[in-house]
């Protein structure tokens, strides 16, 4: 009796000691998790701070930078790695699964049973067991599905990255052209301001000399003020558009970004073959639907395979230790081992197989309609983009000619004004026409290039 009481106290002490250790382990794990999270956050901030800058921000460099540093692209790459690990995790079930289990138990009151009218204890005070087990899946439909669909799942993740890259590249290019448009307007305004300041100086000199009244002087002042106000407004707009471009690129917001461009080269890039036909197979969206259809067909086969059996091989080796004395518990082992082959054959599942198969078939039919709808949308998108491009091209050619004519008119009026033939009002009018023509020329140039991107995207010609 004293021995049993001593053992009971010992087991109670062991129980509370284990409980305390478990509580301490939980607190330690919590602190470790918090430390790890904080460390990861710091690392992310350091990475963001260490993002490189561009010395020469041409359109190609800006797009390539965005494809590498834009968070959406980086997330897509991470998702692809997650998918790859998920595939490996599914396929790992084909390999043997080896496990170890350990058990230690103290019976405060051993179960008693009546055998032949006599009470008999069934067991001992202390038991311990260790088991090494092995399970090998030979066949089941889950593993078959994972093995057959792994390439399509990988391709789906890769196509998602491609789709995101195309969208990012198109948006970055348009934002780049918007920045150029604003910069060019500022450049035009700066040239006008220099010229107007010179005109203002001449008008002031003529007024002071008494050869002209103050109307010319006042008109130049008004035009100069308006031009300087427009320039200041465009400079603020440029800051906003630069930040928008940086955001699309994943570029550090506090770092400078000096845009480099060649207007002549860009003008040479406006050409586009407008006789091309739409090939919907070239669109990444259609390719994604094709991949998804193959995955849906795999799901359909999976539903049809519901009648297939599952076969597995199992085995275990058990070490059993039994003793009424805790100190002598591990002095003797009563081992046992086994191996078995398990075959599970579904006989009746309440019609689930037929229902799931029917659902999978309807999903494929719906996906086929998605593909038809995409074909129609792509054709409509192409026609809209092509019409916009042709319209912008017509306007651009007109504005280019207008700019050349406005320059000739301005030079002629300026020369006639100095000869006393024209009034200064006509100079102001010619100068305003020239400024408007220049701004319209550059605006239409960048609109034309942006619309060209839309046409190329609709044709599936943007590949990254």
UniProtKB/TrEMBL annotation:
Pfam hit, one: OEP
Major place of residence: membrane
Keywords: Cell outer membrane, Membrane, Signal, Transmembrane, Transmembrane beta strand, Transport
InterPro entries: OMP_efflux (IPR003423), TolC-like (IPR051906)
Organism domain of life: Bacteria
Residues of the signal peptide: 1-30
Compartments, as annotated in UniProt: Cell outer membrane
Family to which this protein belongs: Belongs to the outer membrane factor (OMF) (TC 1.B.17) family.
Record-given protein name: TolC family protein
Species name: Flectobacillus longus
